[in-house]
Write a structure and sequence with these properties.
Strand content: 5-15%
Structural class: alpha/beta
Helix content: 40-55%
Strand order of the largest sheet: 3-2-1-4-5-7-6
Order of helices and strands: HHHEHEHEHEHEEHEH
Shape: globular
Number of helices: 9
């Protein structure tokens, strides 16, 4: 027997109150990128009780994902991330409406966001060109968003911070995005993000090639902070 929505969200309702919990349930969130950071953001969004969730990812799980991605298990290796994400959400909240979009976000295919009309977008992709295009598009169309900056090569979750993109410091990815978006005259104050000022540790594989070493700790906290931002903005509405 599946517990009712009120039963599943008893502790949430106790803390937020019935009215605000209902506000969360009536809000839609799109998560673009269901990997290390996006997977943890998705987990929080699902457990908070958001009603409609869009999961966007083109990739499949591979063994190297197992050390840090909450959706990666030995059973999901080789499976599409967006489909695993959908199944995960529904196993937590069967009342959710989950739309899985198997696609790679690119500068020329962002119109799908306007078609789906999410209340919030969580950006958790790591392709810099696609990320810059996505953030510019969201800012241009006034879509509320929060974006993850660099989480690889870092080990200290206590150094994670929330800020608008113009206020970030010490993050190479954030700096690169600022440079790209300023050339497009994008208002950086419209771009909310979670970033770390921690200095990166350069990692090499057994062949001496650079590799993006990563632990589960920083992505997990970063994903949680992304979801927390969406929750707080939902409660402020």
């Amino acid at each position: 027997m599946i517990p009712s929505l009120d039963e599943r969200l008893t502790r949430t309702i106790a803390l937020l109150g019935k009215e605000k919990a209902q506000r969360v349930f009536n809000t839609s969130v799109m998560i673009i990128g269901c990997g290390a950071v996006g997977g943890y953001a998705l987990e929080m969004v699902a457990r908070l009780g958001f009603r409609k969730i869009f999961v966007v990812d083109f990739d499949t799980f591979e063994p190297s994902n197992l050390n840090r991605q909450i959706l990666a298990t030995t059973q999901t290796i080789g499976l599409k991330k967006c489909l695993v994400a959908k199944e995960r959400v529904l196993s937590i909240n069967p009342d959710a409406e989950v739309v899985a979009l198997d696609m790679k976000v690119a500068p020329d295919n962002l119109s799908f966001i306007l078609q789906e009309q999410p209340d919030f977008v969580i950006d958790a992709i790591d392709d810099v060109m696609a990320k810059a295009a996505l953030l510019a598009f969201l800012a241009e169309h006034g879509i509320l968003m929060v974006s993850s900056m660099g989480a690889a090569l870092k080990t200290k979750p206590e150094l994670l911070k929330s800020a608008t993109l113009d206020k970030t410091e010490g993050c190479h990815l954030a700096k690169k995005l600022r440079e790209m978006l300023r050339k497009q005259q994008v208002d950086l104050k419209k771009i909310n993000c979670v970033y770390s000022s921690e200095s990166v540790k350069i990692c090499k594989d057994e062949n001496g090639q650079n590799i993006l070493g990563s632990l589960p700790i920083v992505p997990a906290v970063m994903g949680t902070m992304l979801a927390s931002f969406v929750l707080q903005k939902t409660l402020e509405k």
